[in-house]
Structure formats: structure tokens, C-alpha cells
UniProtKB/TrEMBL annotation:
Catalyzes amidations at positions B, D, E, and G on adenosylcobyrinic A,C-diamide. NH(2) groups are provided by glutamine, and one molecule of ATP is hydrogenolyzed for each amidation. The lineage of its organism: Bacteria, Bacillati, Actinomycetota, Actinomycetes, Mycobacteriales. Pfam families: CbiA, GATase_3. Belongs to the CobB/CobQ family. CobQ subfamily. PANTHER family: COBYRIC ACID SYNTHASE, DETHIOBIOTIN SYNTHETASE. Residues 260-426 form the CobB/CobQ-like glutamine amidotransferase domain. It comes from the Bacteria. It comes from Mycolicibacterium arenosum. SUPFAM superfamilies: Class I glutamine amidotransferase-like, P-loop containing nucleoside triphosphate hydrolases. InterPro entries: Class_I_gatase-like (IPR029062), CobQ/CobB/MinD/ParA_Nub-bd_dom (IPR002586), CobQ_GATase1 (IPR033949), CobQ_synth (IPR004459), GATase_3 (IPR011698), P-loop_NTPase (IPR027417). NCBIfam families: cobQ, PRK00784.1. Pathway: Cofactor biosynthesis; adenosylcobalamin biosynthesis. This is Cobyric acid synthase. The active site is at C339 (nucleophile), H419. Keywords: Cobalamin biosynthesis, Glutamine amidotransferase.
Amino acid sequence: MTGGALLIAGTTSDAGKSMVVAGLCRLLARKGVRVAPFKAQNMSNNSAVTVEGGEIGRAQAMQARAAGLAPSVRFNPILLKPSGDRTSQLVVRGRVAGSVGAGDYFTHRAELAEVVATELASLRSEFDAVICEGAGSPAEINLRATDLANMGLARMGELPVVIVGDIDRGGLLAHLFGTVAVLEPADQRLIAGFVVNKFRGDPALLAPGLDQLAGLTGRPTYGVVPHSDELWLDAEDSLSVQPHRVVGRPQVPRGDDWLTVAAVRLPRISNSTDVEALACEPGVLVRWVSDPADLADVDVVVLPGSKSTVADLAWLRERGLADGIVLHARAGRPVLGVCGGFQMLCRTIDDPVESRAGVTAGLGLLDADIVFDPDKTLAHWESPLHGYEIHHGRVTRSAEDDWLGVGIRRDAVFGTHWHGLLDNDDVRRRWLADVARAAGRTGFVGADDVDVTASRDRQLDVMADLLEAHLDTAAVLALLADGPPDRPVITSALAL
């Protein structure tokens, strides 16, 4: 028997598709439904390692957790990791399959479509429901010929489609109408209805517009989901990591001092979610930065992961940030490098793989050398510490002290290849105490009651609760059972 499936698409990136899918997975799992997430093709440098030792988008790992499942390559069979030079690393079923550019991606479509169709059919045969997430917007009709994640997937699986729109951005009713109107009739017939996301006002004021939208499109709005300040962890879209943006919701200190953290917004940043654990702590203010002046008064600098370590290191030097980070460290103030950021802190980087630049001088804050291997290290750890590794570079020589068995340190400079290390509460607390002392923040008092893993789970329940309260769940469940409803075709200007 084939389980039901539906596609959650969006008017734009960052409309909330990932969280709606996660919320639906958690909501259905709480009802005893065997549910799985699915994103045919993701484009993101925020990734996670699966139980098979493969690589998928971090959002799909989060959605799997919402469904009560371990992350699997089945949930995101195609992952594109942008390299910044108009090419992307192509990851198929968790493993690197080469590099592709926008122009030559079309040549891979038939092969990749077979991968997507096989994985979706397999999940539908095993689960009662599969909640699929689109990518970007289905209204990107210039990409329709190669699309595998939006209407291409919907047509492939005869899936009903619900379009989510972020009302915070303005113009939502036009976005919803236009998204349907620009599609060809065969795609339009699969659009079942809409969900309004991140609403902050009086629903009564919006209701007449939704009634008119239903009249114009012949499609209902299944729900108006309120904005929630609790939904900020595991942000996947680059809009969430813009320079000067504060991470999360800063909480007042337990003591007399704040601890300020500058997370460098690298051009090819990867796994930006590593700093979120710090933002969960009372009295810790985390901000994304991109200029040397942003380092002047901060206590801690974090260099996050990068998809192109050598290129982003060159960017640090061009911007003057490299000198600022070195001065910060030589003053005895703390610096943390994670994965690519860790590699930048070392003495040399020998990269014949990503940049093919050969040996490049690092920042020299750690007396260690890095060599890039052709094969990517993919590892997932659960005990005694939990975290994961995704990197080509490895440490070939180090004169530094061991840091917890997962990295190296010199005084207040720390480096690790582990993503998610700071999600370990004891590790994070001890590290924050160390860096507060190094920064001279004697009035900083660490919290002993912050559980980052529980915070991530709590936001999944918050999203499920919001959907249960504000979504016509009976109508959505009917889509899973019955497939695409009979909806009219809109005649748009493009069709005339």
C-alpha cells in the first residue's frame, strides 16, 4: 500500500517551509501516524551527517527528529553545496558525486530524477505519510525545465501542493495569487491551497483579503499561523545570518556582565547553526559581523565553517578581518574556529582539492598544519559527546594542547572539526567559563539549566502546537488521503 504524500512549497526562500514541514511531522507523529520528511533537492551549506555516514541538509535532519526518526540520506537524496564560483558540489544519496554549474545541471536531470522517484516511492511504501518540502519557489519558471524539488516533484508523484507565504515581507496576497498564475495548467491543478505564515496582526483584518484570494484562485487558505519568537533555532536560509544580525533572543545575564560574541559572516559560510547554542545562554549576545570595526569591543570571536576555506581566508585578509582576529587573540582574548574556521587558525593549509591553491599560510594562531584529502571525512558521534564532522582537511601536525579529544587549543584560541560540539551542555558551560575569565568578564555567571537539545525539541513542539491551533488539520490530512483536489486554472497575463 502506498502512503499519502503532499508538498509544502513557498512563495519565497525563508517563507517557513522547513518549519511547517517539521511541525506537520511532529504533529502527525504525536497522533501515531508513521511519517517521514522528504526534500528531493536541497541547496544549502548547512548539512548534517546521517546514520549511514552520508550528508543531507540540516533542515531534513531536524525534520527527521520531529518525526521521531534518525536522519537518513533517504530524506534528502540530492544536496547541492554552493562553492561561490557559480558551481556547487553535488551530493547524491549522501556522497559527493562531483561538481556542477547552473549551465550543465540539465545534463544530470534524468539521472537525478530517477534517484528522486526511487527514494520517494520507497518512503511512501514504508510510511503512512511523507511530507515533502519544496525549494525556493515554484514560481521560478525559468528553472522549471530542470526542477526536481517543486512542481517537477509534484507532477512526478501526483502530489497535492500547499503554498506557504511569509506575510512579514509584505505583498503576500499578490505572491500567493502570482505563484499560481504563472504556472502552466498541468502544474496549477496540483495547487490545493495556501498557508499564511508569521502573522502578527488581527486575523479579522486579513480575512476579507483571504476571501477575495479564494474567489480569484478557487483555492482556500488552510490556516493563518502566528509569528513566534521561539522559532529561531536551526535557521537554514542565508537571510538569517546577515551581518549585524543578532542570533536568537538575547536573555538578561544571571550576573553583572554580558559576554559578547562576534561570529564572522563568511561569504561561503557552512553550518552557521553552530553558534546557536551560545545564543541560548543568558547573558551571551551573539552577532554576525563582516567588518574589522565589529571586532573592537567583543569578548569572543567565532570563525564558523566554510565551503571554501582558502577563498574565505583570502576574504578575511582583504576585509582586514584577519588582522583584527590576530590582534584580538594576541591580546589574550578568546577565539574559536569550527571546521573551516579552525583550519584558517592553523599555520598552513595545503589544499589540492577545493581551491587547488597548494600551500597557503593560515592565521598562525594555532601551531598546526592542515592537508586536504580527496575523500571527505563524514562522521557522526553520539557518546560520550555528540556532534558530527564534514570536512576534507585534516590535521597532519600539531604542537598544541589537546582540547577534550575533539580539537586543539593554545591559551584562549580553540579549534575543532566538530559541528554541534557546543550543543553538549557541559562542554559549552566549561568553555564559556574559560573564555569569560580570559575576556576579563568576572561578573559573567554561567547558567546550569540550559539544555540546547531540549530547546531544539521544544521549538518542534511549539510549531506543531501552532499548526494544531491555527491550521485546518482535517483538510490537510484529507489531502494526504485523497490526493490533489479539483482546482480551477487561472488565466494569467503570461498565458494570453
